[in-house]
Amino acid sequence: MGIPEGMAKPEEQRLGPVLRRRDQVQPGTTDQRLLDTEGDSEWVHTDPWRVMRIQSEFVEGFGALAELPSAISVFGSARTRPDSPEYEAGVRIGRALVEAGFAVITGGGPGAMEAANKGAREAKGVSVGLGIELPFEQGLNPHVDIGVNFRYFFVRKTMFVKYAQGFVVLPGGLGTLDELFEALTLVQTRKVTRFPIVLFGSAYWKGLVDWLKDTVVAGGKASERDLLLFHVTDDVDEAVALVTKEVGR
């Protein structure tokens, strides 16, 4: 409809909670733009619409995972080969976590994630995969019983933290390191109640741990006690015992 002919453009316009004045006043009304069937589809790529998508991802994730039993998130590389010792360790960890009374949450992809889901499924536990939309399609591995795919990394990472009582981190690349340091930062800053973070594979993690100790802590960029935020082990039983002990199971 726009502004009726002969009527001056208003100096002030209220569009819901938004106030527009002077040159920022828009023609027409919100209802008019909603009901107008003409125009292109660019609106689906605008930031307000993205907010609704983000909200819907949180709602779907919370709804799917709210009734999970106590769970542990297992991180690791999608590139871990099925015939590798790391893959076998992932299977054993997934199985042992279920036997200790936990559900297992992974990123739902191949490699180490698939291994942990496989172990959980073989032990007849709850096997969860939280996938992510990527330019190269991965899909959820066949051992996932409850799967949720996300568009946004930050929503997915919220689910990892909210519905897990601890983390077990297998050897991995940049994505695994991102998830690890996100968890360490949340615990360090007390954004979450402290929970166990276990790095599995001492030979793999040694360089990182040494760098944290000899460079980051030694340079005053972190405190000595921050090194106590995680444990390193090569033993599956010890990894499970650490998370079990710290969550009071």
Task: Give me the secondary-structure topology.
Layout: E1 12-15, E2 18-21, H1 30-35, H2 47-65, E3 71-75, H3 85-99, E4 103-106, H4 112-122, E5 127-132, E6 146-150, H5 153-162, E7 167-169, H6 174-188, E8 197-200, H7 202-217, E9 231-233, H8 236-246
Parallel strand pairs: 3-4, 3-7, 4-5, 5-6, 7-8, 8-9
Antiparallel strand pairs: 1-2
Describe the protein's architecture and organization.
With 249 residues, the chain is an alpha/beta fold. Helices cover 41% and strands 15% of the residues. The chain has helices at residues 30-35, 47-65, 85-99, 112-122, 153-162, 174-188, 202-217, 236-246; strands spanning 12-15, 18-21, 71-75, 103-106, 127-132, 146-150, 167-169, 197-200, 231-233. The longest helix has 19 residues, at 47-65.
Keywords:
seven-stranded parallel β-sheet, alpha/beta, 41% helix, 249 residues
